[in-house]
Amino acid sequence: METKILRRFFGLADFLDEQKFLEEQHRQGWKFRSYSYMTKYVFEKCEPEEYIYRLDYNENNQDEEAYIQIFSDCGWEYIMKFQTWYYFRKKKSTLNVQDNEIFSDNDSKIDMIKKVMWRQTFIVIPMLFFLGYFLSFINWQNDTVFRTIMIVYTLIMTFLLTISVRNVIKLNKLIHELTHPLDE
């Protein structure tokens, strides 16, 4: 069986882009097999087909078998779990567009996005604290090595904080678009 590995980065708020990426790979004859840290996607050669990929965010690990069975009963193939994200796919339906979604309504989709957004928000708060903590050490230390280390830590924290804030803004925008579809 022929495989290929692609490296891509998708932030927490980029799950829709990740779904499109996986769908495009399947259209090109590469079905998604697995994902691991370091942004490594593994694909297996297949017939090019129209498949829908969906990711579901689920923090509740109780009765995971029943959770997956619900999707299976609706025709979704469970692929894998990565942290709190579950990956599913199914052949694209041209008859009923609703069959291409894992959520029965917008409210369910909005609830899932809010969970993701709150998780990201709770990551931002400690990052702000640590960024302020690191910044306070930079100004009063005379040791050049220590000061350099603090500056590097501060830059890393600033980068991570920027990504986190971007994710919260993007998720909030997505919630708004789903809540007010006629605003566009």
The amount of helix comes to 40-55%
The span between the termini is 45 Å
Give the biggest beta sheet: 3 strands, antiparallel
Spatial ordering of strands, largest sheet: 1-3-2
Overall 3D shape: globular
Query: Stretches where pLDDT falls below 50 for ≥5 residues?
Result: none
Keywords, separated by commas or semicolons:
4 helices; 3-stranded antiparallel β-sheet; globular; alpha+beta; 6 strands; 184 residues
Task: Give an account of the 3D structure.
The model has no long low-confidence stretch (mean pLDDT 86). The chain is 51% helix and 21% strand. It has four helices and six strands, in the order βαβββαββαα. It starts with a strand and ends in a 5-residue tail after the last helix.
